[in-house]
């Protein structure tokens, strides 16, 4: 890299400047999503609190991660008539083991369809419950009046569970989304044109340069997502829209009219695709420099000598893989000279090597930032992938659920990861993947390149988020950045009426010309005949 | 506006920090466009020079604005076999007067078509000459070798005349565009999906919320622009591509593969529309705070007392309107209590009022930033409109040529301008427009709102331009922000093959089901018959 003047050091100063709290804060009403989404949202809220904003978080009484009390927000707890499914850890654990079972045993079409049906039922249930939270709020007139009296400046929400848009509409407040997934697809698909020929649909692990088969698969998933949205997700919220706002307001219009979309996306990680002026990219905003490790862990890491360390973690939701798989992993680890730190919550594999340390929790970001860490065995959750990119650590991907397949595929396409199918994993294939990542320097080079691109920004993603949230407060929205084209009927949006009209006009013109030409010909012929007679 | 913490003061510090020259500069090869486009480009080059970059500008020997010698760049002058049309001031002046004549006299369809044909011929001629400049460069092998030896980091160019992309491809250099218009349309249309149902086409003055008629008109202009691109502009460059690079490289691919598009667009002024990750918005980057006026002018301005001042300018290219129109304008000006400063190069109107000062040049930005200036009578060139927005001065629009009609329309739609058809202008209609702008406070309020939005940015547009130019230097391009979907065949891009395949598959499946059902029915019938017998 040539020595072109960098603004990075200046950017650091900018970050410090921007992080200074303002003198008068605004009031923000927050609708978060539980689980790993909350980790992100909470980080944003901490920062907003430090910038003197007063924050009120709406949570259900069954919430799992979102605590009632916090030093940086007050909360409104909505008592729910039943426990919320998505807030139940066991739901995901049993879901994963069912899925692995089906995949490993090569299930029949019938089993697969029945499993998929179950999944859709669960999705519908989750959204029914999320919409129920809105009903509970609307029923409580005292609560709604107190929200009105509070004069919030905006609603900040994760539209993964989108009930908050109805409350925002009721309170006539502008909205800012902290978003990656929305209802049942990727956020972009709702606001930006997304040609499925090169924009991978969520749930479909294909690259941006696709074969015919991949494009057909992508189209299939796109149609599937539209069907899921239309028949499984939206009805719950549309029912409420009709009930509370009348027939002119649809749930999708409320989503699409959000002022700013803080998208947890960065194009070193996602494929380039069309976007809109009110989409602000904050992918990797949670990344930060590594802190020192606890002394015991540091000692273990240092004991690896020149070989270095591999770390492995499969995320917050997953308690453990089936023992036969973990035993294969342990056997492969035992054969390498590196030390291994493995976050593992299930049964201890009997064939664990001396070089492998099992832990129940690890300071993942601090380890990834440690110079001795050479590779990251990961499930491919968004947060972990961004940390790996930020610190430049190549990845062995073992995707299990949801977007994890797409996440690690994108790293693989860019030469920074090796991906294995966990249901077919053997000690041999896993060892081979580890050795490839450790000894083929191209993986490290690719990851270093991604890391350099990711860190080279005019404004750090978190500062960008703060700026645009405060922009919406100052100007009571950001209407000038938002198209309202979604209000057009679909045939008008796609110009089908105009195209029909133009084709009709051309045909009419051609018809007239032909008729006139015919008439003229006939007259000429008749005149000739008359002359000849 | 509530007292939400602003980053504006911090942003000022950022600007100062970013403006600090780096220690080691890069080498930039520049292909500018003459005329008002050069004003913009030159400003960027001054800034880049101050940041320690070494700049080489390619110009023709007939260039009008782009001087051979400058303190902030060196130049390469290409001797041309003939004078370049676009670099001839008289070309535009005579073009404008022809156009006004036709419009005022309500020309016949034949006259209009012949004028349009002349315009297309001129456009083709301009691009033929611009491509000739590339030929002259390629023929000069010594020059090309010295360019190779110079090891430039990137080509910075205005793709209004796009010959530079061929040179960049020949030298294998990344490109950054400083762009608004490209070949014969708006830059966005070449890289970002642009549904014509809500994205106004260049050359078609319609808002983003269109009637059916406006949508049909917009579609017509879109098709027209594609035809112009295909038959008038591209052939000149495609011929060169075929000659120098072989059949696989087309001119459009070279355009579309540019790394960064610094787009002279801001969404307080343009309508929101889809964009791409490698488009960076720098609209209004040329705006700066007003400096003090020369003492004589300041005296004149102050003499206006509480009534204030109106300024009028119709841009750099236009020498003067027909005398009957200027006489109507002068008569209207004479009837108002405000003072008027009028940049006027033609014959002095005989009925000029005492309150009106004719000047051959005015410090437009400094006047617009003066608190006494109440309104701006303008043709609607991009630079002037951005200055008006920056300083918050409402506009009376008298569009004459090119994009000026669209520019002032956008201000009008936002309530910050009143637009008149110059060919139908009378002293009465002009006076009415002036009085509306001066006495209906909504125009000033709308302009103040646009001005506030425009100035409220996390990074000033000029700093943004510097950052991304240097980003491309540091990383030798910005491939991760750029889609290569344009390389797909059109039917694949629009998924027509996949849609056909899926429809065929569904039909085949339905066919099979029907056939099988038929067969089964027949068998059942036969068995019944057998049973009955």
Automatic annotation (TrEMBL), chains A, B:
<dbReference type="InterPro" id="IPR050271">
    <property type="entry name" value="UDP-glycosyltransferase"/>
</dbReference>
<keyword id="KW-1133">Transmembrane helix</keyword>
<dbReference type="InterPro" id="IPR035595">
    <property type="entry name" value="UDP_glycos_trans_CS"/>
</dbReference>
<comment type="similarity">
    <text>Belongs to the UDP-glycosyltransferase family.</text>
</comment>
<dbReference type="InterPro" id="IPR002213">
    <property type="entry name" value="UDP_glucos_trans"/>
</dbReference>
<feature type="transmembrane region" description="Helical">
    <location>
        <begin position="498"/>
        <end position="521"/>
    </location>
</feature>
<dbReference type="GO" id="GO:0016020">
    <property type="term" value="C:membrane"/>
</dbReference>
<protein>
    <recommendedName>
        <fullName>UDP-glucuronosyltransferase</fullName>
        <ecNumber>2.4.1.17</ecNumber>
    </recommendedName>
</protein>
<keyword id="KW-0472">Membrane</keyword>
<keyword id="KW-0808">Transferase</keyword>
<keyword id="KW-0732">Signal</keyword>
<dbReference type="Pfam" id="PF00201">
    <property type="entry name" value="UDPGT"/>
</dbReference>
<keyword id="KW-0812">Transmembrane</keyword>
<dbReference type="GO" id="GO:0015020">
    <property type="term" value="F:glucuronosyltransferase activity"/>
</dbReference>
<keyword id="KW-0328">Glycosyltransferase</keyword>
<feature type="signal peptide">
    <location>
        <begin position="1"/>
        <end position="25"/>
    </location>
</feature>
